[in-house]
Amino acid sequence: MGGFTTDQLLNTAGLAGVVLYLGAYALLQAGRLRGSSYSYAILNLCAASLVLLSLTVAFNLSSAIIQAAWVLISILGILRLFWLDRRVHFNAEEQALRENAFPGMPAAMARRLLDQGNWIDAEDGAVLLADGEPVSNLYYLSAGKVRITSGSHVIGMADSGLLGEMNVLAEGPASAQVAVESGARLFVISGAALRRLSERDSDFRILLENGMSRDTGRKLMRANQQLSSMNGRKA
């Protein structure tokens, strides 16, 4: 069998571009890609470039204009994201929060989150979340320790991570009391501010909820490990 002709290769490139277009849109609708991400812009750039290349076989002016415009828009979008990321700066504790609590959140988006909250130094004994009371703030524990109790029982201690993440968006009741055990450094942002940011940017809400779910999962894993350790000692 002979090799592919030039026309066949160009048609194959066009089909690959269609697959990229449809794949990118499907991932966007499935919530696996963000419309304002590098990945989405790059996929669209590649798709449009391949389809535009295939038009050299059977040229169509309307299609060529659409694909060329799509290439240009995608390039401008990538440059915009790069510019936004380059102009945003974080200090050490802000960067640690971003990496630990919300990995993958774009710099400009993380900056908006941080600008809506404050860093505080909480005194020993300060109650951050009261058992059964509405959760109105989300906390990120950067340093120090907090004690988590339910009734008179100590559930555990925490020295890092999010606090109040399970109920802050809905202002639901806290499932336990969280109090400072030893001098804590915390970032605090109100649930109202988080809801405003989420309403304005659906991508932000997805990344926020992913970060909070990830942190909750880590807590459950630690709790299971502690329970297994306690059962082992009893045995």
Describe this structure in words.
This protein is an alpha+beta fold. It has two domains: 6-87, no CATH class; 92-234, Jelly Rolls, CATH 2.60.120.10. The protein has seven helices and six strands; from the N terminus they run αααααββββββαα. The protein has helices spanning 6-29, 38-54, 61-87, 92-101, 107-115, 191-200, 202-234, and strands spanning 118-122, 127-129, 137-150, 153-158, 161-163, 177-190. Strands 1, 2, 3, 4, 5 and 6 form a six-stranded antiparallel sheet that branches. A hairpin with a 2-residue loop joins strand 3 and strand 4. The radius of gyration is 25 Å and the shape is elongated. The model has no long low-confidence stretch (mean pLDDT 88).
Summarize, please:
This protein is α+β, with helices and mostly antiparallel strands.
Spell out the blueprint of helices and strands:
Layout: H1 6-29, H2 38-54, H3 61-87, H4 92-101, H5 107-115, E1 118-122, E2 127-129, E3 137-150, E4 153-158, E5 161-163, E6 177-190, H6 191-200, H7 202-234
Antiparallel strand pairs: 1-6, 2-6, 3-4, 3-5, 3-6
Helix pairs in contact: 1-2, 2-3, 6-7
**Individual helix count:** 7
Task: Give the topology string: H per helix, E per strand.
Answer: HHHHHEEEEEEHH
Helix content: 55-70%
Decide which structural class fits the backbone: alpha+beta
Calculate Rg over CA atoms. 25 Å
CATH architecture of the largest domain, by name, is Sandwich
Please tell me the overall pLDDT.
88
